[in-house]
């Protein structure tokens, strides 16, 4: 009997939590106010009476990014940092340009799923599943193809065509974040101990030192 009462109590608490959760917005929008002193999961809202069209606008996504860099790629983000009106709406965009054989190195978006559409060119894309399988799921995409990178999984893109390429990505957060694996591991500040990295990656400490210098 006591066990049945415990189960009923747990169900009651669970239902109460579900009912108490309000997924719908309680106002039309919440334009980000970076100067706000409130500490919330996101930016504080400015007075909605002060909202203007420019708070919901970004210009220039048609302009190709400069890919003259060692990676041969350039990301043009359209997040809450560029459009304050995206605050709390759970959506953002990015244009990604690639020189021939340009890459977006393995990275993670800790707060967003990404759906990528190839606009021009051919891209080799993929992601790696979590431990213990660490299975690589990869595909070469052509113009008009779409691919999904699940939230939190390491993924990459590479231009495998003979000319320039570009893609558009939609992300399920106004502030998806990005963690580039190599930079995080070998370029942290302060540095992760080189003997730890040498053991973790089964590398000579001198190689670890070189990687840390490059990152």
UniProtKB/TrEMBL annotation:
The lineage of its organism: Eukaryota, Viridiplantae, Streptophyta, Embryophyta, Tracheophyta. It is found in: Secreted, Extracellular space, Apoplast. GO terms for molecular function: manganese ion binding. Oxalate binds at residues 109, 114. InterPro entries: Cupin_1, Germin, Germin_Mn-BS, RmlC-like_jellyroll, RmlC_Cupin_sf. SMART domains: Cupin_1. PROSITE patterns: GERMIN. It comes from the Eukaryota. This is Germin-like protein. SUPFAM superfamilies: RmlC-like cupins. Keywords: Apoplast, Disulfide bond, Glycoprotein, Manganese, Metal-binding, Secreted, Signal. Residues 59-209 form the Cupin type-1 domain. Belongs to the germin family. Residues 1-20 form the signal peptide. Mn(2+) binds at residues 107, 109, 114, 155. GO terms for cellular component: apoplast. It holds the Pfam family Cupin_1. It comes from Citrus sinensis (Sweet orange). Disulfide bonds join 30-45. May play a role in plant defense. Probably has no oxalate oxidase activity even if the active site is conserved.
């Amino acid at each position: 009997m006591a066990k049945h009462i415990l189960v009923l109590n747990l169900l009651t608490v669970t239902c109460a939590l579900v009912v108490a959760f309000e997924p719908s917005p309680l106002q039309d929008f919440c334009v980000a106010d970076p100067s706000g002193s409130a500490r919330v999961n996101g930016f504080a809202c400015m007075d909605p009476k002060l909202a203007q069209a420019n708070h919901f606008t970004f210009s220039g996504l048609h302009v190709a990014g400069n890919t003259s860099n060692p990676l041969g790629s350039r990301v043009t983000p359209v997040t809450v940092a560029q459009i304050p009106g995206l605050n709390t709406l759970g959506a953002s965009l990015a244009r990604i340009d690639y020189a021939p054989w340009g890459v977006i190195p393995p990275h993670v978006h800790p707060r967003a799923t990404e759906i990528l559409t190839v606009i021009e060119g051919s891209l080799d894309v993929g992601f790696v599943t979590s431990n213990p399988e660490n299975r690589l799921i990869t595909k070469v995409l052509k113009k008009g193809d779409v691919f999904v990178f699940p939230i939190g999984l390491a993924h990459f893109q590479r231009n495998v065509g003979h000319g320039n390429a570009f893609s558009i990505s939609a992300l399920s957060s106004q502030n998806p974040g990005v963690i580039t694996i190599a930079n995080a591991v070998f370029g942290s500040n302060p540095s992760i101990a080189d003997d730890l990295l040498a053991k973790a990656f089964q590398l000579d400490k001198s190689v670890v030192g070189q990687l840390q210098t490059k990152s």
